[in-house]
């Protein structure tokens, strides 16, 4: 039984590595009623593996909920009791709590940075709709960013390499991604001196 579990775990890790390239796997366990470590610094595309007791889980919450030891989900990740794996696909601070023992302060944070310096700016007031995301062979882009202005679009890898050079973008477009391996990428849309970036994930 243990051998089978190890084989399954190896299979999962192998496939996650394929998605994230040379990403790091960060392990978080529970020590009684605390997460250990309760603060993790990671890079975009890294994986976090929660290995918890059967009566602990990890639920992503907002900073405000985290501050008051609440457990209202913000729509982010949520592991079942016993833990699970997540891929860090946003540059931000992830706040999370135990779904059962949140009131006693069982919580943690994951600080995610991007070593390429290309940060996702799509959560600001400028509209950029990229779908489906995750995607497989193609991605559709629609934007009202700077209406009436000539816009350009580029695709970057997680290492910062420009994979698709700048070309004119009207208000919507389709980019074919068959030639690129699975992983995390960035769509950059520019108009004059304005810039907006969206993180996308290619899976197979």
Overall body shape: elongated
- Beta fraction: over 45%
Indicate the structural class.
mainly beta
Number of domains: 2
Report the sheet with the most strands, covering strand number, pairing sense and barrel closure: 5 strands, mixed
Q: What's the rounded overall pLDDT mean?
A: 82
- Written as H for each helix and E for each strand, in order along the chain, the element string is HEEEEEHEEEEEEEEEEE
- CATH topology group of the largest domain: Immunoglobulin-like
- The CATH architecture of the largest domain can be named as Sandwich
Q: Which value, in Å, is the CA radius of gyration?
A: 19 Å
Distance between the termini: 30 Å
Number of strands: 16
Report low-confidence residues grouped into runs of 5 or more. 1-21
Number of helices: 2
Portion of residues within helices: 10-25%
Q: What is the CATH C level class of the largest domain, in words?
A: Mainly Beta
| The CATH superfamily title of the largest domain | Cupredoxins -  blue copper proteins
List the helices and strands and how they pair.
Elements: H1 2-20, E1 25-31, E2 34-36, E3 39-43, E4 47-51, E5 59-61, H2 63-67, E6 73-78, E7 83-87, E8 93-97, E9 107-113, E10 129-131, E11 138-142, E12 151-157, E13 162-169, E14 172-176, E15 183-191, E16 194-202
Parallel strand pairs: 1-4, 3-9
Antiparallel strand pairs: 1-2, 4-7, 5-6, 5-8, 8-9, 10-11, 11-14, 12-13, 12-15, 15-16
